Amino acid sequence: MTPEENEALTRVGPGTPGGEMLRRYWWPVYLSEELKAKPVEVRHLGEDFVVFRDTGGAAAMVARNCPHRGASLALGRCEADGIRCCYHGWKFATDGRCLEMPAEPAGTPLVNEVRIRAAKVQEVAGFVFAYIGPDPAPELPKWDLLFREDCHREVWAKPDYCNWVQRAENGADPFHSMALHAPVYPSIALKRPEVEWERKWYGIRQCSQYPDKLQNVSHQLFPSSTRRHGARVGTVPSEYLHIRVPVDDVTTMTYYVKANIAPEGPYRQVCKGFLKVERGVYTQVEDGWWGIHSNEQDRAAQESQGLIYDRSRNEHLATSDRGVALFRKMVFESIEAVRQGKDPVGTVRDPAKNELIIFDAAKNFSDQSRKLGEELAV
């Protein structure tokens, strides 16, 4: 990979090849339950916004800075039909229209000329999703753990202090489990699986078959999400969705769904909030391997690559990296598609065709690996 290709792959800001591609998707930008009466600053794809609820309860997201003289709307007041800037009282609707300029003469034409940038917003499965790309917006694909109703659901979010591609490549790299996650699954430790990658319209389906008959089927939902199965001894099997959201070039916020499918309700949804982590600080355990808690092994490895991993310097891809190579190919194909005015991978335009997508994620465990996994995942 050339330095120029690495730049195109990793940069997320406006006007960058990768950033323009990423703006063609809906992304979670906040947890619904955490969005209360006050506006909240969020950084998304290298830009600063404010997420808020009007007093009617509708979620919205607008540019952070008031177009009057740049005061932060995070200091503003949520009102019935929008948000009011604290500095001179200019008020904006959730769609970006300016509604009031109390310091200006009545009937000023300026109120109809000024707008603030506003995202399209919808709330699904406990997340506030936003779209900041060009019109018309695509559909939010109906991934099963976001839209199915027959499940208990836990949601939370956690930052990762590295570029989004480092996080996303992990989802197309099943071989890392035999090494990085050896403490959790000792029966497959350093045992090479046979892996099949299948390109799908939504991303990649991958099936790993290990020597001890452990099989793992997972899905990478382009551009950066993973849909996987996480069985545990003595509990109902859990299904997981990880949505890795580019905050800026060097920070990723991962939004998590853990779901337990159940034939009967009542069903519950729990929000665990935003978990705090510190770059380079990981919970230590005595496991005879890496000494890193299972919940932090991926983050530790990916953050250790640097804030933005430079793939142009001394990287040597091997046969085990075919999934990573496929993912990168899809990114570059999507960047080129957007440049040509076309849709990137995984775009859904027709609401009538946006049907619930049930993924066949699956995993089986030997008793030893399940037992240890349960102990380490507390």
Description of the structure:
With 378 residues, this protein is of the alpha+beta class. The two termini are 40 Å apart.
Spatial separation of the terminal alpha carbons: 40 Å
Average the pLDDT over all residues and give the rounded result: 93
In N-to-C order, the SSE pattern is HHEEEEEEEEHEEHEHEEEEEEEHHEH
Helix content: 10-25%
* Sheet with the most strands, sense and barrel status: 9 strands, mixed
Short description:
With 378 residues, the chain is of the alpha+beta class.
Name a few traits of the molecule.
2 domains; Rieske Iron-sulfur Protein; 29% strand; nine-stranded mixed β-sheet; Naphthalene 1,2-dioxygenase Alpha Subunit, Chain A, domain 1; globular; four-stranded antiparallel β-sheet; 378 residues
